[in-house]
Specification:
single chain, about 475 residues, five-stranded mixed β-sheet, alpha/beta, 19 helices
Length: about 475
Amino acid sequence: MTLTILGLGPGHPDDITRRAWHALETAKVAYLRTREHPCVPNLPISSFTSFDDIYDSSADFEHIYDTICERLLAAAQTDDVVYAVPGDPMVAESTVQRLITRAPERGIPIEIINGVSFIEPALAALGIDAIGGLQVCDALDIVSMHHPPLNPDRPALLAQVYSRAVASDLKLTLMNQYPDEFEVTLLHGAGTSDMQIERVPLYAIDRSERIRYLTALYMPPLGHFSSFEAFQEIIAHLRTPEGCPWDREQTHLSLRRYLLEETHEVLEALDAEDSQALAEELGDLLLQIVLHAQIATEFGEFRMGDILSHVSQKMIRRHPHVWGDVNVDSAGQVVQNWEAIKQQEKGNPKRQSILDEVPKDLPALFRALRLTEKAAKPGFDWPTPEEVLAKLHEELEEVLTASDDPHRAEEMGDVLFVVANWARKLGIDPESALRAANAKFERRFRYVEAQAEAQGKPLKDFDLAQMDDWWREAKVNGL
């Protein structure tokens, strides 16, 4: 027995292919995925079974698709069966993909009769060519995500926006990548005699009262240079003979200083709580990452895909409470699990110390914090902040009693180390605290300079008492 799967086209009976029409005319047993299709009343079949009752009885699409497939496969065990779906069987038809996989396992041959999909009339209505990088996706797949799997530099056509509820969930995912006010197009009944086109801002797609089972959403390109792929092309071009001599000369090691500089500029933007500056500085940091990846690609070391795959798999492995069956009660437990999984991934390599994991190139104050954090894990730690404070007093006394400059410098280092440890015990990031203090000093000193300039004299012409008055003014003014 054979299972014939055919497409009914986008909606008008004239769009059904001659071969599909003949298969329907001669069908002994006919099934329709849904009777909600404009051409159904004109089909050349006297009787058929639809699966609308399954859609009405369940909201679980996986269950719906599996149930439809099992019914069709059971029927095809004893009869030749025709299964008709909207559009083309090979476009946005989940049941068809399941049948293609399962039917051969049960010895049931499958014949596919193609049809006109919703894509062709949608392209005609929009006046665009699919060869321009059109992305075609199922809206139901996207609504289950938090970030859309779309390249915003390319147009996208999203099928199965069949209800305002789907549109509402869909826009929330899309707005993680596209602006709320971005103009999009709703296509209602593309390929039917009553097709309607509606252009609306993205945030308003679920307000349309025209949405029905033949509605699709068209997303035009967001604009040049809005995708990660476009940025990769820019960097790759810079490394070509037609690109930039400076970029061509760079190596992993020559870029080291720039990676460090850009990282500190990101921290500066964070401390300033300046979102525009943060966006710019994160872009500069991303430039360094992509440039390193391009150099590695050229030398056969690794590709950007390797970087993304590695970090994605790592995030999934280290979050078994999200992608697995592990239960956690607190963020602290998450950190414990993370460290345990991290150690397992390394295969328990031989190490001399738990401190080996602390990079030597970290800023000194931050490295002191990380060293004390690592040492505290096996219990090498003062129980209370008060005990650390007592140690700080001891170290300060040793600075005061040091006999020479080298000894004094050594003891001052001990003071700074203990301060970092004390901050840890108080739940304070000493690096961030010191950056904030630096910024505060800079703001107030600039105020002092401005007061001197306003009086037409250099700052050095004023005594410390006057400077101190201005400093207090700056403090009162909230600087």
